[in-house]
Amino acid sequence: MRNTKIKSILAIALSIILVFALAGCGNSGEPNGSNDQIDGNGGSKQINLMTWGGDFIPREIISQFEEKTGIKVNYKEVTSNEDMQSLLEANPDQYDLAVVTDYMVDILRQNGSLEKLDKSKLSNFSNINPVYQGNYYDENNEYSIPYAVSISFLLVNPEAVAALGADPITSYKDLWQEELKDKIVLIDWSVEIMGLVLKSLGYEYNETDPVKVAEAKEKLFELRDNIVRFETNTPEDSLINGEAVAGFMYSNQAVKGQAADEKLEPVFPEEGMPIYIDSFVMSHKAPNRDHAYEFLNFIMEPEISARISVITNFASTNSAAEEYLPEDFKNNPMLNLPDEVVENTSFYINVAEVTEEYDHIYTEFKMR
Amino acid sequence: MNTKPKRFRIFYLSLFFVILYIPVLSVILYSFNQSPSTAQWTGFTMDWYKDLFQDRVIVEAFKISILVAVSTSILSAILGTAAAIGTLNVTKRMEKTINGVMILPLLVPEVALGVSLLLFFTALKLPFGYLTLVLSHSLFCVPYVYIMVQLRLKEIDKSIIEAAKDLGAAKWQIIKTIILPLIMPSILTASLLAVAISLDDVVISTYMAGPTSTTLPVHVFSMMRVGVTPKINALCTLILVGTFVIVGFSQFISKKSNQKESI
Amino acid sequence: MLKTKKIKQNAPVVPVLIWIGFLVGVPLIYVLALSFLSRDHLGNVVLEFTLDNYKRVVDPVYLKVFYSSFLLAALTGLITLLIGYPVAYFTANLESKKRSLAIILIILPFWISSLLRTYGWIILLGNTGLINNMLLKLNIIQQPLNMMYHFGTVLVGTTYMLIPFMIIAVFNSVGKLDRSLLEASYDLGASKWKTFFNITLPLTVPGIAGGFTLVFIPSLGMYFISDLLGGGMTIFLGNVINTQATRGRNKPLAAAFSVGMIVLVLIVLFIYSRVIRDKKEGLFL
Q1: Are A85 and B230 in contact (CB under 8 A)?
Q2: Nearest CA in chain C to A360
């Protein structure tokens, strides 16, 4: 009795292991297993790239590049800017390129972790829209190439807002209406939410003046009852399923939301909005520099860049790409950002200096 | 046995299994959803399965994950069992020390473990990838095996072991012929759990995977910024169906061999 | 003389101890050291001793976070025990073939990504989810029930994620209960319940303790469940540590919170071992 039981479990376990081991080893002939990462100084034709996963850099674009040049792209996927910093600074000789957000370019640059880009090897850099160049994190465009632009704004369901008896939402201030109880979804980050409140009071992002911060804190606490949920990754879902009527989210999320439900409309608050520019940077010890330059040039080709914007729902940084963008992309103000909207945006600068205070307020706000 | 409690038992277990599998079934259901968002159901489609088979990244990540999970499970089964059997003979004080040390890997938050192992393995010049993944995963899988196996070991009748000793059996003989067969089921269930734990780790794998290797859970979580598609649901459905086929098949085989034995 | 014997006796477990001690010891020391360091305006760690991080940790606002996390973990442990114990007990009493099948069926769902299983719960409990849809269609309710983004929703998630560990742990200690003991108790006229409380339960205390440890500790750190099911409305320790280590750019503070969490767990385990010491089965500490 005992024996047969053991036998049967053993049989099950062994067969599971066997099948999976076979599945695991089936294609080990391919040169992209986990065995070849030690390869150092550009001997083989490959580059190591690191950034967010999924189609952040679309796979079809990468395949096109690989076919065209014969250079293999190893795409390491991570979940945050800080993960990238840890990995890049621990092993700078293992990564060629990374795509990080503006403030992280600044940090990596000041830490000496980035390579100054050789513009003579980047013939397509002239395609990049000057509007997105020369920002605080890289005044002289030495270290970074803007890749994707997103801003945060409000996505609103005007019908549902009216049905609740609330006034139409045109600015941050309107979120405080009593009628909107449990009907608002927000990005879950202290700096961003404090920023929203500060803007609604007419102040700037990352305010450190204690009086203004205290005022913002009070104002923030008043918003508590209206919030149904904090969500960073899929806030648009709350508007699609109707649990919220307005949400503060990133542009690519708003685009997805509107695609799922035509009733949803973007509102660009007059008080101002945050902007994010995800940029390519190169490790100062990049092992495959020449191939990396080739890749950067490829990404900046107008047609390729247009295709990337269409897949990722991020605004294009490429002026030359415009003619290749489809009509519905160009006509969508969330994707083809109007100039007056871009002019009304600003970066989160010196985030590390305010997070401690803001996080404390934010925690108190949530734990009430 | 009277039938009333037995009926209650069957009812309770069935209810438990239904609740256990309902979320899994909704994962499967939404692998056929046209909309990429779980917020709405827009209609039936098989497209995600088509996409899945064309996606070499997912397939690649899946292979690495399985390889790491199986290796981790085997390594931690060996280490955990060895430690548990080892504690049979040690002093009381030593046993307490081991019990304490064994829960340490569970105590340190994953981010902290990930970041510090990244720095540590970099200093040791270990190549990041398969090796570091298995090493770090078994670190937090060993305690599970150890605790599970030790619980079973405590149930073993000490007199059997004493008797064997009296009969002059060597230590490894006792372990091999008496202890191991008795605890084998526990080792196997603990290994299955270890596979589950390894297959689910995101944070540590992010730091431990090299530039060329991404595991499946890291792939899934890193997609969150641009959106997790039902392709992942499709993959999980296939994994589940696959394991069920294997389990059913081995049940069938063992039933057959049982029948033969009884003849 | 006696000492060499002791050393010999302990020798077999030393390698595993060193292996774990080394790989966890280094991170532990790192975390402890980090928690006393400062950071610069970029969020980089600098070698400058400070107690500020701990001052932050014991701030009343953050102590509330400790409390809510403790509550979540303790309740998760309790609920997994209440639901899982009968499952383990009944499973152990199945005939051997069905028993191994049941155990495998319990573990298998956990081979699926926990993120997806969490989404599975959202599909069920959401505003337009399956349960609400069904109830609306059956005319049992007129308005969708608001089941998401509560503490209870988070609790459902953590319980669901961790229950197999409780079940398997209890199962392992129920597995070989001495039948003769139970029969003797019945012969003496004890009722089923009495036998259970006087004999079965005490014998399975190690299993309960083991299961509780394996459920309590991880539920302190499961941040994405509270993000997705709890709608980020409450903050737990896992969220704080994760946020501070990444977006908050304050690794020293994250380290101090980690130390705080470890201390919390040690205190709980210590009290726990005191409570069950009467049973002579102090499994830990």
Answers
A1: no
A2: C61
